[in-house]
Amino acid sequence: MNVFDPLTLPNGAVIPNRIAKAAMEENMADADHAPSEQLMRLYQAWADGGAGLLITGNVMVDSRAMTGPGGVVLEDARHLDRFRQWAAIGRSRGAQFWLQINHPGRQMQANLGQPTWAPSAVPLELGKLSKLFNTPQAMTPEIIEEVIRRFARAAALAEQAGFTGVEIHAAHGYLLSQFLSPLTNRRTDAWGGSLENRARLLLDIVKAVRATVAPGFTVAVKLNSADFQRGGFTAEDARQVVVLLNGLGVDLVELSGGSYEAPAMQGQARDGRTLAREAYFVEFARDIQTIATMPVMVTGGIRRRAVAEHAIASGIDMVGIGTALAIDPTLPCDWRKGVETAPALPPITWKSKPLASLANMAAVKYQLRKLSQGRAPDPQVSPLRALILQQVSTACRTRQYRRWMEQR
Ligand SMILES: Cc1cc2nc3c(=O)[nH]c(=O)nc-3n(C[C@H](O)[C@H](O)[C@H](O)COP(=O)(O)O)c2cc1C
Q1: Which residue's CA lies nearest to atom 15 of ligand 1?
Q2: What confidence score (pLDDT) does residue 271 get?
Q3: Å from CA of 188 to ligand 1 middle
Q4: CA of 392 to the centre of ligand 1 (A)
Q5: How far is residue 41's CA from residue 53's CA, in Å, rounded to a whole number?
Q6: Going from the N-terminus, what domains does the chain have, and what CATH number goes with each?
Q7: Which of 159, 175, 345, 380 has an alpha carbon 20 to 30 Å from 198's alpha carbon atom?
């Protein structure tokens, strides 16, 4: 098996090769939180670059619950024409194009001015940065049911717009991941306690989405292989959740790890574990592959062809690539031509881990901005400069978002 072999999903859809552009939040919505021209240019670059699958950065199912102030929202049909244009661009060179749908739960900036909802009233612990987030309110069963409907509606709208699938984001400490973790889910009702109960929201969303879209439309799930926090969602929990997902018509599971508190998706565990230096979650993925009835994709730390090939040769179905494709969107075409590029950002060795993690995200987003302006990426950007630019842009977009919400 080779990274350029096609993959047929359980629903019959064919992904032309095994390289996926992983979801990266772009913060490039237009003034109405619909896809902007910048976003179109960015995705044209990835469509031209040759990845078999493109996954959008997370798109919000509720305009009151945002992972960031410049995020795309899909909660009604108002801007469906913009989504149609976006879908057509992503698919223009034959790639599959999935919309990632998400709800932040407690991982939402307090200064967005919205109530913060989560499974339980457990605040984020990020040292000095904790105050940027509200202590959440525990969701009522009615709010939980509304969230399920919203995921299903966003998936139906994505299908109408011409995307070939959706990916339900249940990783990285966002709402569905909060429900899965015993650290953040302290509920004593049907949505908390046992793993079956903690997984209920994810499973109900998968069922609602699958019941809403056509059988040929892909439904994927991004899941943590573990939270990498003591007392959190474990690798054994992840295995059990995949067993629960088997048989629900899920076409692919993408494995990642971590959260804002423990950013394992950037290669750092907080529970004393050591992650692989490259392809951080590949061992977990191999293990999950043995019990998963759907294809498995692994994302995190992949930038060299040999590493991608090794993962595929070991039986993992797809590799997801984020950072390296932000620096070089033509990476898949280069690899196919035999050019062994391995793009990376210089490591950030700051003492404050949460700040270093933010700076890393900012340095990647800096590359996305360059690409969206039709300019060459600059991986040598100073992380401090990228972070300051990102903070200024976030402050600006936060004001815009608050005004937008007040006018609605
Ligand atoms: C700037 C940035 C934004 C991200 N946004 C998302 C997102 O919206 N949804 C998601 O599932 N993962 C997101 N991620 C995580 C990536 O999908 C991926 O799991 C992570 O970057 C590790 O892969 P990499 O080492 O190839 O970058 C983001 C990562 C970065 C750097």
Answers
A1: 24
A2: 74
A3: 32
A4: 21
A5: 17
A6: 7-344 (3.20.20.70)
A7: 159
Nearest CA to ligand 1 atom 21: 322
Q: Which sign does the torsion angle of CA 210, 152, 300, 325 carry?
A: positive
Shortest-distance atom of ligand 1 to CA 301: 25
Q: What is the pLDDT of residues 352-361, one digit of tens each?
A: 888 899 999 9
Q: Which residues contact 288 (CB under 8 A, 6 or more apart)?
A: 225, 238, 239, 242, 253, 255, 296
Cα-to-centroid distance, 22 and ligand 1 (Å): 6
Q: Which atom of ligand 1 is nearest to the CA of 323?
A: 27
User: Which atom, in ligand 1's list, is nearest to the CA of 362?
Assistant: 1
pLDDT (tens digit per residue) in 245-303: 999 999 999 999 999 998 888 887 767 677 888 889 999 999 999 999 999 999 999 99
Give the mean pLDDT of the chain.
96
Task: Please state, in angstroms and rounded to a whole number, the distance separating the CA atoms of residues 154 and 42.
Answer: 22
The neighbouring-strand residues paired with 130 are: none
Neighbours of 348 (CB within 10 A): 19
